[in-house]
Sequence to fold (336 residues):
Amino acid sequence: MRIFSGIQPTGRKHLGNYLGAIVQYVEGQQRAADAGDVAIYCVVDLHAMTVPWEPAEMRERVYDTAAVLLAAGLDPEQCIFIRQSDMPEHTELAWHLGAVTSHGDLNRMHQFKEKSARQRDLISADLFTYPVLMAADVLAYRANEVPVGDDQRQHVELMRDVAQRFNDRFGEVLVVPELRIPSVGARIMDLQDPTSKMSTTGGSVEGTVYVLDEPKAVEKKFKRAVTDSEDPPRIVRGASKPGVSNLIDILSATRGMTPDEVEASLADARGYGDLKVATADAVNELLAPVRERYTALRADEDALEAIFAAGAEKARAITQPTLRDVRAAMGIGPRT
Ligand code: TYM
Fold:
């Protein structure tokens, strides 16, 4: 059972990334090892070039993201931790997969529609073919499982179709991977606008809890979180209570309790204030140690480069045989 997932180096990582994805990455390392296989995690700097970026900041952001992931518990001895741009096999495979990806399918991608609508200047070809590179990231490793948050569901479904279409046309070369979405925490919402997902690009700073926020800032953001005016206040989930539901989900994912257990534990609460305080405390307990470890890890860029170099070497041992098989099946390159 092999696991692959990727994360963008854009901006600062937030609680949605943490609960939707990073917690699963950490857990996946042991699960993959127990099954005699490995988990591969990738900082996807090439995907970050699909919207405007500052070249001078890109490498810094890759280091920031790498240090957050290591501080959260990724162990480069146990998993394979890589930077996407170190791996030319990903981009080569993306080209090959483009041959079995339909333009119409790419046109239907929600993320492309949202991001291209926001773009003032150039809507690049790379933004359009983003999901093909994402498919290549995973398929190059013949991974079985892709842990992601709910917003990546459509991309993973597309990658499954692409793998299937490749195999139908060229023979059983690729593995069709399974989507893995957490039961709670797959869609953390903005604290100020609980009908939009928490995000680095779309949301508000006040409504977004960053992994590296100071405890005081975290408390303040939860204290100001939008709830509802139901009287008397009820701490239960429901379609008409997006703010309260989001806080219950966050508390549940953070404490490792079910949402029902969270509701029961707060049955005697006096109001939404108690829910907000409990959630802020739980998030601070989760993130404080990460923040502490981050500082030392981020300071040593040479060590981060060494981790990427070692990761790329281990990764190539998996991707190069896949690419050999793909080229042979497609009839390109020298005779094998
Ligand atoms: P990215 O960098 O936007 O997000 C990283 C992970 O965080 C999850 N996530 C959330 N989960 C819950 N609630 C939220 N509000 C929230 N916001 C983000 C995302 O679902 C994701 O799992 N395209 C990917 C990166 C990628 C990738 C891959 C993923 C590139 N290649 C191959 C898997 C496999 C992305 O932009 O994630």
About this structure: The mean pLDDT is 96. Strands lie at 3-7, 39-43, 80-83, 145-147, 178-180. The first strand starts at residue 3 and ends at 7.
